[in-house]
Specification:
5 strands, two-stranded antiparallel ribbon, alpha+beta
């Protein structure tokens, strides 16, 4: 009886560990895996696995896509300095 109970608890813990240990790392980031708070490994973008309660994956963005526009302004842009405040009239 006790052996069956221990086996059931072991199976539940194993399933919990398998199901809740996966993390998704975005394409523009890497994951820094720490084990007990100390550096352990680098996880590349995609699906990564960390043992719950032992490992942690900290997502660090390493690449950003920056948009630069030259010579024109985007309607409803959030950057007030993007366009010329008094554009020249090119119609003649």
């Amino acid at each position: 009886m006790a052996l069956g109970l221990i086996a059931c608890v072991g199976i539940i813990v194993a399933l919990f560990t398998l199901l809740f240990g996966f993390r998704s790392i975005p394409a523009n980031s890497v994951g820094v895996k720490t084990r007990f708070g100390a550096y352990h490994a680098i996880a590349n973008p995609g699906l990564a696995y960390a043992i719950p309660y032992f490992d942690e994956i900290h997502i660090v963005p390493i690449q950003r896509l920056l948009k630069l526009e030259f010579g024109f302004a985007t309607p409803n842009a959030t950057n007030v300095y993007q366009a010329d405040p008094q554009p020249e009239d090119t119609r003649r």
